[in-house]
Amino acid sequence: MKKSLALALALAAAPFAASAGEPSYTYVEGGYAKLHIDEDDLDSPEADGGFVRGSVALGDSFHLIGGISRVGEDYRFLGERIDIDVTQYELGVGYHLAMGERVSFTADLAYLRYDLDTDVQGYGEFDEQATGGRLGVGIRGQFNDQFEGWVKANYYDGGDFEDETVTGVVGAHYKFHPTWGLMAEIEHGEVAEVESTKYLVGVRASF
Questions:
Q1: 8 vs 3, 12, 106, 155, CA distance in Å?
Q2: Could you tell me if 32 and 46 are in contact, meaning their C-beta atoms sit under 8 angstroms apart?
Q3: SS3 breakdown of the chain: % helix, strand, coil, rounded to 5?
Q4: What pTM did the predictor assign?
Q5: Which residues, 6+ apart, have CB-to-CB distance to 40 below 8 Å?
């Protein structure tokens, strides 16, 4: 009886034991996105929406990254109704280097495009775009077989990002299944001359 129970426990734990070590760089994730703008003149507006992004490993050191997020909100300013939608597109390549059994150095270079769609009641619609580049450098570590976290600094420059800026990123991923897990991430700083905080909460499928 004891041998059967021990064998059953070993088989149940095997998928998680196999996931120990360096985390996967092939995954897709999506969920809820929230954007908070630090602008007193506009009463610090917030927008809600969703996101989808992913990564595909290319060998032992490189991976492709891409994603899209869209948030929007209706609010009133000086008595007028304003509908704002912000869509962000990202495509790039990443590099990772193991610094130990559970810690990796990460870097990524990506092209970004922001679409700002504004509808002001009584004045019509206004569309603007901003493009540029992002360089991210950070650390990704796995605390145990189910939980990992990352910290990163993003540097934005080029294109319409005339004033280079740096933001900070903190994230975590809890793996409750060999494939599925929950993730959350916060990025704070100034992008395109706008100080903001972006929140992501979703589900990740790792392969």
A1: 9, 6, 37, 49
A2: no
A3: 10, 70, 20
A4: 0.82
A5: none
6 phi/psi in degrees, rounded to 5: -65, -40
Name, in order, each residue with C-beta under 8 angstroms of 48's C-beta and a sequence gap of 6 or more: 32, 33, 34, 35, 71, 72, 73
Higher pLDDT, 112 or 2: 112
In one-letter notation, the amino acid at residue 84 is I
Report pLDDT digits (tens) over 31-90.
999 999 876 665 667 899 999 999 999 999 999 999 999 999 887 766 778 888 999 999
Which residue(s) pair with 142 in the sheet? 148
Instruction: State CA 102 to chain mean position distance.
Output: 21
Work out the number of other CB atoms within 10 angstroms of the CB of residue 134. Answer: 19
